[in-house]
Specification:
mainly alpha
């Protein structure tokens, strides 16, 4: 009996270790989506009253859990009944990530800074109008954020499914469920911190007292207030780059000859003396990002042409 119990414990520990390992791999692969997820969802609460920021984040987080409660069973069903569809779905998801990233770049370069500033000013003026129903604005922002989350959650679940598609069903269930919970809690916990970081900086900057501790708190608060806008910009830039890197990586892994060519190029770069190991790491990143940029441009061109044809009378 004792030996059976120890064997059972050892089996459970082995399974948990496998789950942890696969979850770590899946989390690494899905991390590229998170930078954009953080920036997008933090921006979704812009224009919401300060005392409603956290309730809005919580409402979107609940919507995200609902999204994943739909997506995880769907992913398991695909893995069980149509495993051949996993790679095509990943390819479509990767192409969409590249398209979304390139669309952001195109919007940035198609409109001048003055035009974007005027758009922001118009939004701020509209929200300041007493006739505007702020509750309706809040509900609209929540719905928009939940829709955005559904797309990004689908990418996370699809990438995770691609990681565990050859594992037993219970392993797939454990990893997909674990990733869904951890990613949702982590993303929206960080979003809550990001949207309230300026409040924390303001609180610290207003601390009263002549002690060294109070002086440090005020200096820290002023530093946080200065850094907060740059944090959002940094998240946005990092998220966009990550979309090309991850999306391009998905596409290259789906095209076996291209994937082998990139691996061969990375090996050649790694054989160089001096910075070989660094080049071996950077080469696949650069190639995947380049493929992501090209794919994003092509998809955006195709979408634009379809819209124009559809708009013709």
């Amino acid at each position: 009996m004792a030996s059976s119990l120890l064997a059972l414990i050892d089996d459970i520990a082995s399974v948990l270790d496998d789950v942890a390992l696969l979850s770590k791999v899946a989390a690494k692969k899905t991390a590229g989506v998170l930078g954009d997820d953080l920036a997008l969802n933090a921006q979704q609460v812009a224009g919401v009253k300060v005392d409603r920021e956290l309730p809005v984040v919580w409402a979107v987080a609940k919507g995200s859990f609902i999204n994943k409660s739909i997506l995880v069973p769907a992913a398991l069903a695909i893995s069980a009944f149509a495993p051949w569809a996993i790679t095509p779905l990943l390819m479509v998801g990767g192409a969409y990530l590249c398209f979304e990233g390139f669309e952001k770049l195109a919007h940035k370069f198609m409109y001048s800074a003055a035009e974007r500033a005027a758009e922001h000013e118009a939004l701020a003026s509209a929200l300041a109008d007493p006739a505007v129903d702020l509750l309706a604005v809040e509900k609209s922002k929540i719905k928009g954020a939940v829709r955005t989350d559904f797309i990004l959650s689908a990418e996370i679940v699809a990438i995770t499914l691609g990681t565990v598609q050859n594992s037993p069903f219970m392993m797939q269930l454990a990893v997909l469920s674990g990733i869904a919970v951890v990613m949702t809690a982590g993303v929206y916990g960080l979003v809550a911190g990001i949207v309230k970081i300026d409040d924390g900086g303001l609180y610290l900057s207003q601390r009263v007292g002549a002690s060294a501790v109070r002086h440090f708190q005020r200096s820290l608060g002023r530093g946080i207030l200065r850094a907060a806008p740059w944090l959002m910009k940094g998240l946005s830039v990092t998220g966009t780059v990550a979309m090309f890197l991850v999306g391009g990586g998905i596409l290259t892994h789906g095209v076996t000859p291209l994937n082998h060519a990139i691996e061969a190029l990375a090996q050649q770069a790694g054989s160089l003396s001096g910075a070989g190991s660094l080049l071996a790491t950077l080469t696949p990143w650069a190639m995947n990002t380049g493929v992501g940029l090209l794919a994003g441009a092509l998809v955006l061109l195709a979408v634009t042409l379809v819209k124009r044809v559809g708009a013709r009378p």
